[in-house]
Specification:
There is one protein chain. The protein has about 110 residues and is mainly β. The chain has one domain. It is built from no helices and 6 strands. The strands form 2 sheets. The chain has a 4-stranded antiparallel sheet, with no helix packed on it. A hairpin with a 6-residue loop joins strand 5 and strand 6.
């Protein structure tokens, strides 16, 4: 990578079981040595992380990072610039309706 040469790597979207249209959405960590992506593991979705080394198969480094709760489907996510926090967008299958009463400044 330091030479500016193009490097090929695996299409991660083909390595997961599809249960959501979000599978495969990916974000790089700031050091460029890891990539995180939405994936299914069994019947749960969440964010996986995998090491990235140009020219090497790093599939064995894939591991769960966050999410993977049975009542939620992770739709998308983002990583803070300092890699210290991850924000998840997730949905509950079947939908959820919440009533908010007595909210200040809302009539």
């Amino acid at each position: 990578m330091d030479t500016g040469e193009t490097q090929q790597f695996a299409d991660l979207t083909r390595l997961v079981t599809y249960v959501s249209s979000a599978d495969g959405r990916a974000r790089w960590f700031s050091d460029g040595n890891k990539i995180a992506f939405v994936a299914a593991d069994g019947n749960q979705t969440g964010v996986m992380v995998q090491d990235f080394v140009p020219g090497e198969d790093t599939a064995h480094t894939r591991r769960r990072l966050v999410g993977f709760e049975p009542e939620w489907i992770v739709e998308s996510f983002d990583i803070a610039p300092d890699d210290e926090r991850i924000v998840l967008s997730r949905i509950r299958p079947g939908g959820t309706v919440v009533l908010a009463e007595n909210v200040p400044h809302v009539k």
